[in-house]
Amino acid sequence: MFLAHILPFATAIGIIAVAAALQAATGMGMALFAAPLLALVNPALVPGPMLCCVVALSIAVAWRERLAIDPRVLGLSLLGLLLGCGVAAIILLVLDRMQLRSVFAILILAMVLLSFSGLPVRPSRVALLVGGTASGVLGTMFGVHGPPIALVLQHEPANRLRATLCAFFAAGCTVSLFVLAVIGAFDVAGLGLGLALMPGVAIGLVLAPPLARRIDRRRARIAVLVISALSALALLLR
After folding, report:
1. Measured on CA atoms in the order 208, 111, 227, 1, is the torsion positive or negative?
2. What is the pTM of this model?
3. 107-124 pLDDT tens trace
4. In terms of residue numbers, what domain contains 82?
């Protein structure tokens, strides 16, 4: 009985640690990697508790690289995100848990395909607003803010991309948690689960610097996308 409770949670912390290390080292991958895997371990860990971890990690990285943040890009994308959070709140009030799981898996697969597509998207005003809105919807519903806005910013210099994305995630995930709390989808119990996962964030931050020196970013990106797709398929077939 003891192991039945401890092993799943240790697995969840391990998932967060790997995802946080990837995010801090490469600027991508935390939510896309962690969300479907955490949903398989325990659906209660997504989206609220996982978003707590994303907020903590994103604040740490954004502060470390704050001089590289692009204020124009951040402002426009956050404006879109606010709209997306409102849309997501309405959807969450309409769909039941079983429907959400299927929608979640399908959208993860769609984001993986978009990430592989290599579409020539540029960070125009319209693209930033649309990308921010899509990120707000996905992030509030499932804790995965990254793929839409990352697609818009994919051609930015690496340091600006990493810093701006993490600033976006820090603000966006905080707004999403507020929206979830307002509609009753995130409460004190969810906050407790999020805090319990924080050791994974700390481990990831420690592992990130040596990982950044050794990792092949292209291969890491492909690995994250493949794992995300397989996890989403497992959710659909569960």
Report:
1. positive
2. 0.80
3. 777 777 777 776 666 788
4. 2-237
